[in-house]
Write a structure and sequence with these properties.
362 residues, alpha/beta, binds nicotinamide-adenine-dinucleotide, nine-stranded mixed β-sheet, 10 helices
């Protein structure tokens, strides 16, 4: 799947749904000053999701860009009314320290560049919002946490589904035991990867394959629905294209056990479309979302009848408004650096289990 068709895949349901005007009642009053957000890396996600979302946010706005491509800089300046003064390269982004219009730096570069770009942002005294996965191993994640702590800036991770109403409704069903206790979770996500030259297939830049890219959503589902951390992980891997997936994982299947006894099973894959949802089996029934992980149009069912189909919101706008609100009102973010670090710890345990051929326990 090319990056273009990957985007179409993720947005398909959003396009099918009638897009209502964006509203989020949590922020009825706009703050006195919208916080300025600088985007680092103007690739697909920044161009097609984040920048459009920043036109809808109440608490923040696009105030700067960091790019290594001069032609992109000019196009973005024109499109979003940005000045040359708010435009940086990866080598000059430390100069943001002098730019009072920028409060938050949103890091949207390949996974293994999250560390240098987050460190540069923190050193410039800016709050850091970083795309998932936080980094490619726990040591590098920890360095980001330490730098943000040292600089006294807030760190958040781009877990958009933590703000998606259908996913949150399922968390409510689980937490309030509406259909009894959750017992077994089946969560899977994948797509057929196209362009064989892209960074997602390069270990140095991606850290891993489908597991790091989309498997992380399944891990998040299991952690969100249980409210627990796994205590046992067992995994197996398969590759059907040894050339394309020479450096990273193609398909991984893994099982996690949680302290309450919940078992979750997941598959992440770059080999096929069609997996993008979850189902939770409970002591008195079940609930499911399929799709669960798209940018919009996520919907599902529950065994006692009602559909789960809460109108779409722009997940990126809601997550960014919440992060800005956390800064304005000095409250912790629910998508913390600690959460980003612990997710990477469990992803590493999946790889470790495959390598050792046995379960990993915590
Ligand atoms: P992309 O390839 O479309 O964009 C990456 C950007 O980084 C490009 O502008 C590229 O020029 C720049 N870049 C800088 N140095 C680079 C280098 N050495 N090699 C390659 N590119 C370099 O990728 P994307 O899909 O926008 O993903 C960026 C980040 O966002 C990743 O961490 C990814 O996991 C994350 N992401 C999150 C979601 C989500 O739903 N939250 C969706 C897609 C991507």
């Amino acid at each position: 799947m090319s990056t273009h068709s990957r985007r179409q895949f993720l947005t398909r349901s959003a396009a099918l749904a009638a897009a209502p005007l964006f509203t989020h009642s949590a922020f009825a009053q706009a703050p006195a000053r919208k916080l300025g957000v600088a985007l680092v890396g103007l690739g697909n996600l920044s161009a097609n999701q984040i920048a459009p979302a920043l036109l809808k946010t109440r608490n923040c706005r696009l105030a700067g860009i960091v790019t290594g491509t001069p032609s992109k800089a000019l196009a973005w300046q024109k499109k979003y009314g940005l000045s040359a003064k708010s435009t940086y390269t990866y080598d000059t982004m430390h100069e943001m320290a002098k730019n009072k219009d920028i409060d938050i730096v949103y890091v949207v570069t390949p996974n293994a560049l999250h560390l240098p770009h987050s460190l540069a942002a923190a050193a410039a005294g800016k709050h850091v919002f970083c795309e998932k996965p936080l980094e490619i191993n726990t040591e590098r994640c920890q360095q980001i946490l330490d730098a943000c702590n040292k600089a006294g800036v807030m760190l958040g991770v781009g877990y958009r589904l933590q703000y998606e109403p259908n996913n949150l409704e399922c968390v409510r069903l689980a937490k309030e035991k509406v259909l009894g206790d959750v017992k077994v979770i089946d969560a899977n996500f994948g797509f057929a990867m196209g362009d064989p030259t892209q960074w997602r297939l390069k270990r140095d830049l991606a850290g891993g394959g489908a597991l790091m890219d989309v498997g992380i959503y399944c891990l998040q589902t299991a952690r969100m629905l249980t409210g627990e951390d796994p205590i046992w992980i067992s995994a197996a891997e398969t590759k059907t294209n040894l050339v394309k997936f020479k450096e990273v994982d193609e398909t991984i299947s893994w099982t996690m056990k949680f302290p309450s006894g919940v078992i979750s099973n997941s598959v992440s894959t770059y080999a096929a479309n069609g997996l993008a949802g979850f189902r939770a089996a409970t002591s008195r029934g079940w609930f499911s979302l399929d799709p669960a992980y798209f940018y919009g149009g996520n919907r599902g069912r529950r065994s006692d009848g009602p559909e789960i189909n809460i109108p779409i919101t722009d997940q990126f706008a809601v997550e960014l408004d919440d992060f800005a609100d956390c800064i304005i009102n000095k409250r912790p973010t629910k998508v913390s650096g600690e959460m980003g670090l612990s997710d990477v710890k469990y992803l590493m345990a999946v790889y470790e289990s495959i390598k050792k051929g046995r379960p990993v326990t915590f």
